[in-house]
Design brief:
Elements lengths: L11 H17 L5 H23 L9
Length: 65
């Protein structure tokens, strides 16, 4: 089987940030409840992943010795 591959045009951090913004916008349009909380939870997770990705790729990060 051959995989369908394509080159990402945006960085991982940009895609995670956009995903988090989209989740927040969708949650704002919903009434309070379990589904809204799930959207907000996904947005927080994407924000955290973007920050970790940024931290891991920072030039100040040094490998353990």
């Amino acid at each position: 089987m051959k995989r369908n591959r394509f080159k990402q045009t945006d960085s991982l951090q940009d895609r995670l940030t956009k995903f988090a913004e989209d989740m927040k916008k969708q949650a704002e349009a919903m009434p309070a409840g379990k589904e809204r909380e799930e959207f907000l939870k996904r947005a927080r997770s994407a924000d955290t992943a973007a920050h970790i990705s940024d931290w891991a790729s920072s030039p100040g990060l040094r490998p353990p010795t």
